[in-house]
Design brief:
This protein is about 80% helix and about 0% strand. It is mostly helical.
Length: about 260
């Protein structure tokens, strides 16, 4: 029991930091740890990871929103597109064997972390707001469709893909990108966790409780730090967290 608690708490640390700093899905961290270290069935592990994501993302979104670092209007448009096309992507994946993209989100996490260290996002809110609202809304819907389909098809990567597209394509300032990402992830994680538990049944309640509480605790700490930090410090912190998490998950998968 003690081993189970320690493993879940450590997994929650990584998931919480990833969520609070970068809008990363807890599923990308918690699932491989529970599967590898505790021998948990993959479906149950993903359900626990998604449930851990709900509160952590919601509280992080509240913190970013309180500091005016969320784009609610475009975030809702992207969220609807993501949710709709996640189902479509899942349906297509059911019919097409796909074993080559399982590590996609892990590799993306690692290289995105390096990207934030080497080439930080220094866009300001003033520069971000130069883009026309109509154009940004169209881009949110279009890329939400793309993200949703890919996430449904490969089963992961939503938070990282959103962060990459919001900063690199839509030109968001980093804090607003992360805030918008966790806002969307709170709803997508809720949908995913409810469906997992409805289909797969009751999970390991001890693992669920420890993962949820640990992820929530570290997400609160990370989001509060992120909203107070300068753009330079936040880029470096986000880059280091993502790089370490990416490398750690790759090692866990190799064990």
């Amino acid at each position: 029991m003690l081993t189970k608690i320690i493993v879940c708490f450590i997994a929650g640390i990584g998931a919480g930091l990833g969520t609070g700093f970068a809008g990363m899905s807890a599923a990308a961290v918690i699932s491989p740890v529970l599967i590898t270290m505790l021998g948990m069935p993959a479906y149950e592990a993903v359900g626990i990871a998604l449930a851990s994501d709900v509160l952590a993302s919601a509280v992080s979104a509240y913190t970013y929103g309180k500091n005016k670092n969320i784009d609610i209007k475009n975030g809702i448009a992207m969220m609807i597109s993501v949710l709709c096309f996640t189902f479509i992507g899942s349906w297509v994946a059911n019919m097409v064997p796909n074993k080559t993209m399982g590590s996609f989100s892990v590799v993306m996490t690692f290289f995105l972390g390096i990207k934030f260290i080497v080439k930080p996002v220094m866009t300001t809110k003033e520069k971000m707001n130069e883009s026309s609202p109509a154009k940004r809304l169209r881009q949110s819907v279009i890329f939400g469709i793309l993200i949703g389909f890919i996430c449904g098809f490969i089963g992961a990567g939503g938070g990282m893909m959103m962060l990459l597209i919001l900063t690199s394509v839509l030109g968001y300032e980093l804090k607003t990108a992360v805030g918008t990402s966790v806002f969307i992830m709170a709803f997508t994680a809720l949908t995913g966790s409810v469906s997992h538990f409805a289909i797969g049944g009751k999970p390991d309640m001890l693992c669920l409780a420890v993962c949820v509480l640990s992820t929530l605790l570290w997400a609160i700490a990370a989001s509060k730090f992120a909203n107070k930090a300068s753009a330079t410090v936040l880029n470096r912190a986000t880059g280091v967290v993502l790089t370490v998490l990416g490398a750690g998950i790759i090692l866990v998968k190799l064990i």
